[in-house]
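Exercise 7. Predict the joint structure of the components listed below.
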Amino acid sequence: MCVNCHSCEEACPKDVRVAGIMNALRNEGFKAGKAPKGYVGNANLLLASGLVASLQGVDRARTQVGLDKMRMPNIEEIRKLLEGTELKAKGGRT
Amino acid sequence: MGGRYALMLGCLIPSRLPQIEAACRKVFPLLGAEFDDSFDFSCCPNSPFIKPLDKEAWLAMAARNLSLVEEAGLTIATPCPGCSNTLLEAKHELDNDKELRARVNERLKTIDREYKGKAKVRHLLQVLVEDLGLKKVESIVRTPLRLRVAAHYGCHLLKPSKVMGFEEPFTAHSLEDLIKVVGGEPIEYENRDLCCGLVLGSTHQDGSLDLAHRKFSSAKAAGADALLVTCPTCFLQFDTGQMRAAKKFGADYSIPVLYFAQLIGLAAGLTDKDMGLQAHRTKTTTVMEAQKGR
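Solution:
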């Protein structure tokens, strides 16, 4: 149930990097195909658009507060950058 | 002192909380900061969900974002602590591990980019406090907000402190200082430094709401009129999540949530519509009344 808040690291007198250890364990879990659905959902969004954002209704909400349409990053470049990574291989649809 | 910054909005603010973006775009120019929107930033990517899946991919994307501003020599400024945390943690690793940096640069070469380590990164609260100065805020206050406000720093704005290079997490006071400057009263409350709990929501909904409940209850017990945040994740948990927690615990917290730029804007005499308060899920009536001097 680690929330990655880093509080334990701040308090640790021996500089143990607990968040780093938790992250390494989670990376192993993903490699073994054991990531929670919500996490993989984030990866799917990222690989689809370059942002972890669901874009339905977004431009309408932006217009209501006087903003221009949402700007999207160059997804082709990002997909190319991620070629051969575990994230791209296991992250679902692209 | 003002300055020009490369604005990196991240994902949540422009998509789900555009009122925060609108508030930053209206308030920061009043304080002397100018935003450059010409950079092709992607997701930072976030450290609670993407880094735990694949750290190498996380590093590659963070390095790309950092590389974008190196030539322009601008500091990246972001309204999101998730973004400043990811970029500064990635920078810390890349600047202290030559092999890792070489490996990441091999990958960046496939898109004709290179990470050189020159980019600087700051959350907008740090820009406000260290570059622009709270005196500048004081000078634009038109309608002092007589509110009792609970400051919530969240996790990644300040931690890990060695990497973030801002205030010490357990003794931070910039938000309390800001509350005073706009005419409010910062309240002391138990659980100030507790995580908002949103990240737990995707795997442990009960634990997530429990953290939020502890936050609301202690802020309420200390007499808070509003909860002040610096982070879109905390904002979502406290604004939207407040109804869910109230239902689960049979409680009535009714604590409006404000992003710190909104607090400044309201005190500077901008309207509640300018600050996008109509987009909030938890009623902001007490805040609007305070602005009208009631």
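Discussion. Residues 50 and 208 of chain B are 19 Å apart (CA to CA).
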